[in-house]
Amino acid sequence: xxxxxxxxxxxxxxxxxxxxxxxxxxxxxxxxxxxxxxPPVRIEGQIDCDRLADVLGSPPDGVPSQLIDxxxxxxxxxxxxxxxxxxxxxxxxxxxxAVL
Length: 100
Known about the structure:
The protein has 100 residues and is mainly alpha-helical.
């Protein structure tokens, strides 16, 4: 399996700055991967961002390919330019609900 390196999404400070409900939702989509290595997250206020950053910064073997893809998308959009591109795309589509 190819290795991957996250430039931004593996930083505890960035993880803490995120809306926690969105981070919980993201992690729950990959429960079978995260639960054994990061304390299970069921509700807001329980995310161990330091441990999560360690796992994302040096992932163990067996990371699901869907998770790798999702992490790459999030990591690439976790920039000012990525944020602006998302806002522009949403503004062009009035019927697209945005989470800002």
